[in-house]
Amino acid sequence: MAYSLDPADRGPAPDDDVEADQSQAVIETHLSRVFLTPDRAYKLLKPVTTSFVDFSRRADRLAATTQEFELNKVMSPDVYLGLADVVENGEIAERMIVMRRLPADRQLDRLADAPDFLDHVREAARLIATIHAAEPPVARAEAESATIEALAANWNDNFDALEPLAGPLVPAEEYRLVRQLVDGFLAGRATLFEERIDQGWIRDGHGDLRAEHVFCLDDGPRLIDCLAFSDDFRITDVLNDVAFLAMDLHRLASPAAAMWLVKYYDEFSNERHPAALAHHYVAYRAHVRAKIAAIRFGQGLAEAADEVTAYHRLALEQLHVGQVRLILVGGGAGVGKSTVAGGLADALGCTLLRSDEIRKDLAGMAYDEHAFVDAGTGIYSPEFTDRVYREMLREAELLLARGESVVLDGSWSSDARRQWARDLAGRLSATISEIHCSAPLAVAKERIARRMASLHNPSDATPEIADHLAAHFDRWPEAVKIDTKQSVAGSIEDACSRVMAGVRDGADAPSAKIDEAALNSETVEFFLTRITAWHRRRISGS
Q: What is this structure's pTM?
């Protein structure tokens, strides 16, 4: 609760059950009362009992107040000034946290339209990464709250709370899709969560990183209201901690703002955290807020109904965008499949594996060393090609298990090899997309001739190979066909749109027009922003 706001300045709170008594300068939440003076704020815990905390006993309130002060003072020592005891008849009746009052207009949620908003987001990411870095990793024995089993249990608690509203406030199909996508993500990601613990990414964090808890001051941001009443809610994966603020920025500003927060956090933590895991945690945080809104709705607050719907829809969007994907990009020689595969991987933030490079690795050859042989012989024999595709799928398996989406660039002319990929996607609960790049044979041969003139390419395709592949290419009805006669940007645009929409030829797909200049810039932000917007329209039926 952002107790430092002037009640006269504060509009209706979208996320909390907050009431402000303006005549007495008191802000009230479901857990506390905050008394405001011109330069101080005094926070007092209420003697309440909820499903997640019990403050009914005085001794527990006093201890919780002290713990909250100590935890928050570490993060913002110049805001959390001390403790003040309320004494009655010589005994301590209550205890209050004394804080410096911060300017209301410097809350991050109030700055969403400011021209320097992303500068504030970047500084917030820097501070959060610094706080996380200062905390030692939690030992495995103390990291139970960050296991895949704990996350699954938390999701199930949310589902139990929302199930009665599936229909009245949450469309039944959306409720079903969220459960399906959550189960799918968790089913194949045991390795990811185990390694997050082993790599030390479970830390004692903030636990309630909402935009209203970030104040952007001239000398840097301040964080307030670190969650103190439950260690399990606060000790979590650092990415889960950041995801709370990313969820809030997505809602208050834009999907791009949320993505920039995670990118900045990656920069300052000096790590690359899996994008799919970030999306999953954002979805989880949105689902938690949907559950809280559902509880408030059940308590008679009718205005919470819209929050239930909006947060649940945000969770669904993020789960859609954050699916772990295995994307096959194939076609005959010279059709431009490697160009499309590379652009697709860049645009969607996937790892790219190329059969041409893996073939050279297995043969002990440099990528710019060529082996022009007859079709079906040498390192292009069926037996050696099987080795290439099995190795490519082995590497893909390691990545998919760790939450990384993968683009596989190869001819994929054999349906048997495509089935190997489908079986892998099924085992690891990854969403599979199959892209068939095509161009007239004459166009493909002209491209091959130009490529052979430079030789700066791992491909050994010749015009004769193009003829051979065209004659021995198994039918591929499962694939989306991309006509690569169009511009490079147009081909990549079509591929991205089809993959993210999960649709095939002739079906509706999102529009995300790009130009050639965008291909080497911030295409991840560009595409995911537009695809997320498309999902929102699709879900809402508009």
A: 0.82
